[in-house]
Amino acid sequence: MLGTTVPEPIKSDGRVSVCSAGLDVDLGLVRIYPLARSGVANRWNTYRVPVENSPKDSRRESFKLKADRHGSAFEQINREFVQVGHMKPAQRADALKKYIVGSIAEANRKLMSLAIIQPQFGELDFSYNPESPDSPELKLFDIGEPPKDGSKRFPFIPRLHFDDEDGHHHLQVRDWGGYEWMRKYPDRYRELPKCLHLSDDSSLLIGNFNQHRNTWLIISVLNGIRNDVPTLFDLTEASA
């Protein structure tokens, strides 16, 4: 498992779900969704889980849990994840190097929907969201029904500036851990780079949208894969 996005409501049935992305030894990078918020797999752990192709998503990397069918208890299906191991820091760079591309443009040319990039980082800034229930404008003007879940629940949406081999980008960060930080510490949202352990040595796991495949977002920040030497954070995470 490499990353999980902030929970978002499913428009078709109202469930709130997350999307997780990881590495399969045979299939390469894969995404599994929708998943319940409870019991989600942890980053760098390895799991055995039954999946099948998603009838609503033709991207080759996209799968769904076999347990997510009519009559399923959605809050229980994450129990299908059975942990079988952990990817050690020393293994990560070699395991993921074939999925690193030089740019988003290259990922588009290769018809990838998941990729890893190692760009030159700029500023992480925030776009203001007046629809948030924590927005002063919403409280002042009572702008409609505030969202209860998802990224629009937050008054500030993080976006990262960076340059890859083909140009400049400004992508939304959808890492669930980052949004949990902002939920717990709303007045410290500008400390998000520290929470994400974002540095010049970081890499980005990115994914595109099913309906807009040239539009991308940041699923998670990965550390310790730009070279064979693990970062201090990865060593700490492995021993936790």
Short description:
17% of the residues lie in helices and 33% in strands. It is an alpha+beta fold.
Protein model, in words:
This protein is α+β, with helices and mostly antiparallel strands. Helices cover 17% and strands 33% of the residues. The chain is built from six helices and 15 strands. The protein has helices at 89-96, 104-109, 136-141, 176-184, 192-195, 232-239; strands at residues 3-4, 8-9, 16-24, 28-35, 45-48, 51-53, 62-65, 82-86, 100-101, 114-117, 120-128, 156-164, 167-172, 203-208, 216-222. The strands form four sheets. Strands 1, 2, 3, 4, 6 and 7 form a six-stranded mixed beta sheet that branches. The protein has a four-stranded mixed beta sheet with strand order 9-10-14-15. Strand 3 and strand 4 (28-35) form a beta hairpin. The longest helix is centred in the last third of the chain and has 9 residues, at 176-184. The radius of gyration is 18 Å and the shape is globular. The chain starts with a strand and ends with a helix. Residues 228-240 have low confidence and may be disordered.
